[in-house]
C-alpha cells in the first residue's frame, strides 16, 4: 500500500547536484518534491499548484531568492525557507525581512533539513492553539486575546507558538532566542529576548493570570490555563 504524501514542497535550486541531494532526502522522508532551477519557473509552479512549503536558494537566475520570496508573499501565505551559503547575520536578517519563515545555512546535513522542514510544517498546519483568552490560528498567523486581534512580528509569533506548545513548562532563554530568531543564542540574546517579551506582554495586555511569566535564572513560561480534562 502506498504511503500518503506528507506535504508538497517546492524546491528552488539552480545547482543540479544540490537539487538532486535535497530531492532525495525529502522524497525519502515521504514528501512530494517539485524542483525548479530558477525564480520564474518557481512562480509558475506557485500559480499553478498548491504547496505546503517552498525551499529556496538565494543566488538564482532571473531573480534572487529574496525577490522570489517577496513575490510568493504577494500571492500566497505558504511558508518559505531559504537554503543558502550566505550565512552572515546581515544576510540572514535580509532573508527574514523578505518574509522567510526559516533560514538554513549550507552546508547542512539531512537530519537538520528534515527537522527544520517538519517544524515549519507543524507550525503552519491549519488549526488553533489556545490557552485561556489567547488564541493563535495556525496558517494565518492570527493572534487574538479575547475578542481583540493582536498584531505580532514573526519573532513574537514564534515565541508565542513555543510557549503555547510548552504551556505550564519553563522554556530556557537560549531555546527561546533560538526559536524566535532562528540562530544560536549569543550572550546578548538574553537582553534582546527580555526587550521582545516586554513588548509582547504590552501587546497582549493585562490578563489574570499573566500569559507570560518570567522564571528566575531560567527563562519564561506560559501558565496552563486550559481546564483539566481528566
Please outline the helices and strands:
Elements: E1 8-12, H1 16-28, E2 32-36, H2 39-48, E3 53-56, H3 65-75, E4 80-84, H4 89-97, E5 102-105, H5 110-124, E6 127-131, E7 134-138, E8 142-145, E9 148-149, H6 154-165, E10 171-172, H7 173-181, H8 189-204, E11 213-215, E12 219-221
Parallel strand pairs: 1-2, 1-3, 3-4, 4-5
Antiparallel strand pairs: 6-7, 7-8, 8-9, 10-12, 11-12
Helix pairs in contact: 2-3, 6-7, 7-8
* Shape by Cα distribution: globular
Which stretches are low in confidence, meaning pLDDT under 50 for 5 or more residues running? none
Q: Indicate the mean pLDDT.
A: 86
Helical content (DSSP H or I, runs of 4+): 40-55%
SSE run: EHEHEHEHEHEEEEHEHHEE
Question: What is the radius of gyration computed over CA atoms, rounded to a whole number of angstroms?
Answer: 19 Å
Strand content: 15-25%
Largest sheet, in brief, is: 5 strands, parallel
Major β-sheet strand ordering:
2-1-3-4-5
Counting DSSP H or I runs of 4 or more residues, the number of helices is: 8
Count of strand segments: 12
- Could you say which structural class the secondary elements and strand pairing correspond to? alpha/beta
Q: What's the N-to-C terminus distance? A: 37 Å
Summary?
With 230 residues, this protein is an alpha/beta fold.
Structural key phrases:
230 residues, alpha/beta, 4-stranded antiparallel beta sheet, 8 helices, globular
